[in-house]
């Protein structure tokens, strides 16, 4: 008998698939990576898919961001030759998320969040800059700007939710803000490992924070109401 795809079941499947993908990276078993890295993101897409029925304009942008992220996952598995393609895929994912977040709160409605994330991104970028090849510097700068804006706008959504009468919506907004922060941490770890590393156990830190971020962003969408 098949298990119903409830949130706990999908969370367990995501954790198992992620653990196998991380183990494949750490033990140099590429077949585990090729199988379970895209599968983990697909499970998160399955988790997000039935959510957000009452806010379809938000749902479509979150789903689009997850799909572009899946494309980025696959591209990065091909190594340095597809790095720019992966970077572009994730840049588009961040733009989708950012656009979705601005459907709820005006862009930079809480300027302090943007100042804080700009400073954080600037510190990280300054440490990586000597190791970034000249040809990659423009796309890296564009990517960092989009990533920081996405994370900052997630914080804006959280702050704007404080007046929301629905406690569930307030919790989901807080989880969204956490997701934005985790995404920035994940990409900072990836960039440090690539341009300034090596970072010990890089796959563990990069992928653990990455899939946690994606789960948090998907969780922002309201769950489907339970049948009476």
Describe this structure in words.
With 228 residues, this protein is an all-alpha fold. It has 8 helices and no strands. The chain has one domain (7-219). It has helices spanning 7-26, 30-48, 56-76, 83-101, 111-128, 137-160, 167-196, 202-219. α2 (30-48) packs parallel to α8 (202-219). The radius of gyration is 17 Å and the shape is globular. The mean pLDDT is 95.
Strand count, sense and closure of the main sheet? none
* Cα radius of gyration in angstroms: 17 Å
Structurally, the number of domains stands at 1
Task: Give the beta-strand count.
Answer: 0
- Find the structural class using helix and strand composition: mainly alpha
Helix content: over 70%
- Contiguous helical run count: 8
Uncertain spans: none
Terminal CA distance reads 24 Å
Using the alpha-carbon principal axes, give the shape: globular
Order of helices and strands: HHHHHHHH
Strand content: under 5%
Question: What is the residue-mean pLDDT, rounded to a whole number?
Answer: 95
What's the structural blueprint in terms of helices and strands?
Layout: H1 7-26, H2 30-48, H3 56-76, H4 83-101, H5 111-128, H6 137-160, H7 167-196, H8 202-219
Helix pairs in contact: 1-2, 1-8, 2-3, 2-8, 3-4, 4-6, 5-6, 5-7, 6-7, 7-8
């Amino acid at each position: 008998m098949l298990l119903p795809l409830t949130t706990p079941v999908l969370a367990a499947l995501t954790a198992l698939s992620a653990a196998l993908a991380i183990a494949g990276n750490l033990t140099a078993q590429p077949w585990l990576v090729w199988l379970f890295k895209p599968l983990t993101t697909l499970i998160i897409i399955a988790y997000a898919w039935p959510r957000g029925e009452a806010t379809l304009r938000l749902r479509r942008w979150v789903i689009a961001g997850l799909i572009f992220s899946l494309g980025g996952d696959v591209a990065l598995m091909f190594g340095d030759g597809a790095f720019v393609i992966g970077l572009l895929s994730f840049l588009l994912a961040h733009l989708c998320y950012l656009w979705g977040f601005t459907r709820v709160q005006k862009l930079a409605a809480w300027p302090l969040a943007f100042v804080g994330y700009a400073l954080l991104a600037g510190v990280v970028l300054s440490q990586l800059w000597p190791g970034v090849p000249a040809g990659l510097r423009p796309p890296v700068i564009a990517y960092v700007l989009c990533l920081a804006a996405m994370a900052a706008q997630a914080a804006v959504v959280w702050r704007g939710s404080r007046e929301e009468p629905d406690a569930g919506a307030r919790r989901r907004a807080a989880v969204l803000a956490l997701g934005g922060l985790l995404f920035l941490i994940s990409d900072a770890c990836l960039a440090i490992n690539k341009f300034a590393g090596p970072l010990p156990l890089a796959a563990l830190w990069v992928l653990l924070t990455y899939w946690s971020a994606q789960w948090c962003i998907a969780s922002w969408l309201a769950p489907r109401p339970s049948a009476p």
